[in-house]
Write a structure and sequence with these properties.
alpha+beta; 7-stranded antiparallel sheet; 3-stranded antiparallel sheet; 10 helices
């Protein structure tokens, strides 16, 4: 057998990788022409390393500015996993327990009035098993505070805590306030100091402390006109509200439930941390035990754990862990396979709504292409 030099082998491998990347870029370009889409940023992980990043379409439609890999997005509900990660850190430090009565942690009674003897814990809140609902809104804790809202009882559903899964944004905005009360740090600063900075990631919940020139405009699709309309509310400054900030109560201003701003590639580095059971770039963010808890549903009839859910429907035959997000017209997906060490981040700043297998249908189509051509490398 003829020997190949190491340098020549590297050239061959590099050329093959480039060809695969070139193919998938062409395929997704073609897919975008079949769907109304403003822009798409993707990052693909294989062997717990990012092997492909690319951005398609527009950062700003009105100005015709193309999307680039350093663009940041408000990633919506994928943000919840940052809040859950912070809670696991604080438990490891002995500052709280996920089985504590939330009433003792947040400073006002948190009880379903129909089931007053049933304690609501962080474990139930992070799993959306708390029986709390969003009917009174979730942008302020006043909605559920018995002394602030005469209809606070309606913020609880008519079933006992722990008995039923019901997705609820208020759960995670309350968690943000608890992080502040326990840590003594403002929510946005806690996440930056203890999750983002150790992983050397750029992003955050506080718009006023970010390079806003990197933000991708977000557009909502209007089916009646077939047009995309700018959603300026996606990036709202909180300067005025922060001036009167109440630590341990005002956390919903930063939206712990959905307000993280970050690029697809940096989100992929964060995803790798969870895929590697709490560690990346030489930094352990949470323990292996905490990482496993975040990926283990409490109930056998739900696939949702602590802001990380699992599904074997997105890619047939592959059990993936992760989360989706949707807000203001943006749709996002972060899913990984920890045993096989691959994963995907896809973020669109404007796409037709509608889900398949729990993921925006367009994002799922793109993910299947990425899986086929970059993970299993089908021709």
């Amino acid at each position: 057998m003829r020997k190949i030099s190491i340098s020549l082998l590297l050239v061959i491998l590099t050329t093959k990788s480039f060809t695969q990347a070139e193919k998938i870029t062409t395929y997704i370009d073609s897919l975008m022409k079949t769907k109304p889409v403003v822009g798409l940023s993707v990052a693909v992980v294989k062997n717990n390393k990012i092997i492909y990043t690319h951005s398609f379409g527009y950062k700003n439609l009105e100005r015709g500015i193309s999307l680039s890999n350093d663009c940041m997005f408000r990633i919506a509900s994928i943000s919840k996993s940052f809040s859950a990660t912070a809670i696991m850190q604080l438990q490891e430090q002995g500052k709280l327990s996920i089985d504590q009565d939330v009433s003792d942690l947040i400073g006002f009674p948190v009880r379903n009035p129909r089931y007053p003897d049933s304690i609501i814990t962080l474990r139930l809140m992070m799993s959306h098993l708390s029986s709390i609902n969003d009917s009174q809104g979730y942008f302020t804790l006043d909605a559920i505070h018995p002394e602030k809202n005469t209809k606070w009882m309606d913020a609880y559903s008519n079933y006992p805590p722990g008995s039923k899964f019901s997705y609820c944004n208020m759960n995670y905005n309350m968690i943000g306030a608890i992080i502040e009360r326990v840590s003594g740090e403002r929510f946005d600063q806690y996440v930056y100091n203890h999750v983002l900075a150790p992983l050397r990631l750029y992003g955050g919940y506080n718009l006023d402390e970010l390079d806003t020139s990197r933000l991708a405009s977000i557009y909502e699709y209007r089916s009646d006109s077939g047009r995309f309309v700018l959603s300026p509310g996606a990036y709202a400054s909180r300067t005025r509200e922060v001036a009167n900030y109440q630590l341990g109560y005002s956390a919903p201003l930063f939206s712990p439930t959905g307000g993280m701003k970050i690029s697809a590639s940096d989100l992929a580095h964060y995803m790798i941390m969870h895929s590697r059971q709490g560690k990346n770039v030489g930094k352990r963010i949470i323990s292996r035990k905490s990482a496993r808890l975040m990926q283990t549903p409490l109930k056998s009839d739900t696939h949702y754990a602590f802001a990380i859910e699992n599904s074997d429907k997105i890619i047939p035959g592959q059990l993936l862990w992760g989360h989706t997000g949707s807000a203001y017209g943006l749709h996002s997906a972060m899913f990984f396979q920890p045993d096989k060490k691959f994963g995907f981040v896809l973020i669109s700043n404007g796409v037709v709504p509608g889900n398949t297998a729990g993921v925006n249908s367009f994002l799922r189509q793109a993910m299947l292409l990425l899986y086929d051509h970059l993970i299993v490398q089908r021709d």
